[in-house]
Amino acid sequence: MSTLDIDKALDAITDWQEESYIHLHKNPELSMQETETCDFIEAELEKLGYQVQRIGGGVVGVLENGKGATVLFRADIDALPVKESTGFEYASTITRTDENGNEVPVMHACGHDFHIVANLGAARILSENTDAWSGTHIALFQPGEETAAGAKSMVEDGLVDKLPKPDVALGQHVLAGPMRSGQVGTHVGPILSTGASIKVTLHGKGSHGSMPHLGVDPVVLASAIVLRLQTVVSREINPFSMAVLTVGSVQAGSKSNIIPDSAQLLINIRAYDMGVREQLLAGIKRVVVAECEAANCPQAPEFEVYDSYPLTDNDVATTEKVTKAFVDHFGADRVMDCGEVSASEDFSFIPDAFGIDYCYWGFGGFEAGAQTYPNHNPAFGPVMQPTLRTGTEAAIVACLAWLKE
Questions:
Q1: Model pTM score
Q2: What count of other Cβ atoms lies within 10 Å of the Cβ of residue 256?
Q3: What distance separates the 2 farthest-apart alpha carbons in the chain?
């Protein structure tokens, strides 16, 4: 088995990767609508000799190269309904029709375009250097991460039955910190939080603004609930347990002198423990129900849990193996423990469906000292290089930790 010169191989594909990145950045698509993106990915994988399938709205390429381990590397591919303000020459000006029929601006405000091109770059280098590894490489491109629908969609469409069973699953995400561009960060155990959103519908009783005694005011009720919910984390969750509860939206009424008959709250929660997650959900329901009873609501509140994300909990041995491979390749100064990140991912639905171990890590997107913006911000614009190169290197190095055995 020959030795793969990763730096030389990356130099040879830099122009292609940058052109691909710019194309994808300029043409983002919303969750579960990634038709053009999937067409682009499929065409590239077929050029590289991968066996390609469309599964659950995503694309999967399989390259068999003799005996050895089977490694699945996953990249998410969707964008967000955000108007870009990065100032890049290649900034997105695209608008798309969302699920409600509204025309909205769209941008890759979470860096999934980097993920796509890094995965494609790894696939290209592995396909062009089959004498340097042995086994099976699965390049998986997943839709709908931003709505927690994509991984489930692929699993429900028979992902497990349509692919050879992997020995391990790997994934990564470009982040604003704590790594700088050119660095990677791993973490043993929980690395991304479990998360969920809850839509709460409150039922009041409409009335004239001058006759509040004839109604049940859902605006006052919603306000009381928002304040009371602040105690769920501060007074019910163990201070040593991470928990976040955010009321991101309160919708009620249309005119100053009309007491509406309903109100709606949109709530988001995060935790590093499934037990804490359930405690948060129970606390929300208990507070809402109690406040509705206190307000003498004519109808019980309604709850809808959506965008539900699992805990991303890195396997110890797998993460230690990936970390060692990174240190050997990048050097200790470019590898760090990124700690726990409060964002959430649906990545783990895929390895959990196969019943296999996994490792998920981050890589930096902003240069040291540069102004940084968090993922989902309209100005989130990681520097193209060395971010793209580092993400590609990390994907190759991690896969080869199994494929060279």
A1: 0.92
A2: 6
A3: 84
